């Protein structure tokens, strides 16, 4: 397990890929925890969790009917309108999401969000245990403005734009039928105790993920919630 976590951490810090099938484990979440512990030991702070495979399409693609989850750290956060540093990423993709802010074990606020995923597995080819061990491809996130959860949150229109062009159209309904279900899953899955106050829960993607190119501008717009944006470094 230590070798497995070391290899994933080397891939992260050395910006290089591993080939699927290189390692095996019966407990991919334990490997994930080891990988994240290495990040925390370098001074990063856990700031929340993300859910993955929350859409029917992604579940079918992986042949599963359960969500997966990973850790978010402060080093993954990109300010709204900030820059995604490509030199630290292997083959990043972006996906439109919503984020929840946690207080008292409840949803305190919602925001439009962008998740950056960047698998440490070659060509994004992995098994389910491999992607779990790899912290579910977590690589970055942007959170827009926090606000109260609006009426109709279960079916808000979502756009993903790259360089001013709409490249994906979706709905928050793609996130487990209602993104609040993703929050309930996060609360159920969070290890040991209640999710700490001020944590962020990234609920999952409302559309397919899209690869980004140097210099591109990425913008997510969620109906009633507003926008989240990032610039890709050149
Ligand atoms: O956030 C996600 O849904 C990604 C989960 C891992 C699968 C992938 O990297 O596409
Ligand atoms: Mg995601």
Q: What's the number of extended β-strand segments?
A: 12
Mean pLDDT: 96
The CATH topology annotation reads as Fumarylacetoacetate hydrolase, domain 2
Low-pLDDT runs: none
- Under the CATH scheme, which architecture would be assigned? Alpha-Beta Complex
- Tally of individual domains: 1
What would you give as the CATH superfamily?
Fumarylacetoacetase-like, C-terminal domain
Order of helices and strands: HHEHEEEEHEEEHEEEE
Percent of sequence in beta strands:
25-35%
Structural class: alpha+beta
Number of helices: 5
> Which of globular, elongated, flat, extended, rod-shaped describes the shape?
globular
Could you give the distance between the termini? 37 Å
CATH class type:
Alpha Beta
Give every kind of bound small molecule, once each.
Answer: hexanedioic acid, magnesium ion
Strand-helix topology:
Elements: H1 2-14, H2 28-41, E1 46-52, H3 56-62, E2 68-73, E3 82-84, E4 93-103, E5 106-117, H4 128-133, E6 138-143, E7 157-162, E8 165-171, H5 179-189, E9 200-202, E10 210-211, E11 217-222, E12 226-232
Parallel strand pairs: 1-9, 3-12
Antiparallel strand pairs: 1-2, 4-5, 4-9, 4-10, 5-6, 7-8, 7-11, 11-12
Helix pairs in contact: 1-2
This protein binds hexanedioic acid (0L1) and magnesium ion (MG).
Residues 52-53, 58, 115, 117, 119, 131, 136-137, 204-205 line the site of hexanedioic acid.
Short overview:
The chain has helices spanning about 1-15, 30-40, 55-60, 130-135, 180-190; strands spanning about 45-50, 70-75, 80-85, 95-105, 105-115, 140-145, 155-160, 165-170, 200, 210, 215-220, 225-230. By secondary structure, the protein is α+β, with helices and mostly antiparallel strands. The structure holds hexanedioic acid and magnesium ion.
């Amino acid at each position: 397990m230590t070798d497995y976590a070391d290899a994933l951490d080397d891939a992260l810090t050395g910006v290089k890929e591993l080939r699927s099938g290189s390692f095996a484990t019966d407990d991919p979440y334990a490997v994930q925890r080891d990988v994240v512990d290495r990040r925390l030991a370098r001074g990063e702070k856990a700031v929340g969790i993300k859910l993955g495979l929350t859409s029917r399409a992604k579940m079918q693609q992986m042949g599963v009917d359960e969500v997966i989850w990973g850790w978010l750290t402060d080093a993954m956060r990109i300010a709204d309108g900030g820059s995604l540093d490509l030199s630290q990423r292997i083959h990043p993709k972006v996906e439109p999401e919503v984020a929840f802010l946690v207080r008292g074990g409840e949803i305190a606020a919602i925001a439009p969000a962008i998740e950056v995923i960047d698998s440490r597995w070659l060509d994004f080819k992995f098994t389910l245990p491999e992607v779990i061990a790899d912290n579910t491809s977590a690589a970055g996130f942007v959170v827009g403005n926090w606000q109260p959860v609006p009426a109709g949150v279960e079916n808000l229109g979502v756009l993903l734009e790259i360089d001013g062009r709409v490249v994906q159209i979706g709905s928050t309904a793609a996130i487990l039928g209602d993104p609040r279900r993703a929050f309930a899953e996060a609360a159920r899955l969070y290890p040991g105790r209640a999710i700490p106050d001020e944590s962020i829960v990234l609920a999952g993607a409302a559309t397919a993920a899209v690869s980004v190119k140097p210099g591109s501008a990425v913008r997510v717009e969620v109906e009633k919630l507003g926008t989240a944006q990032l610039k890709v470094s050149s």
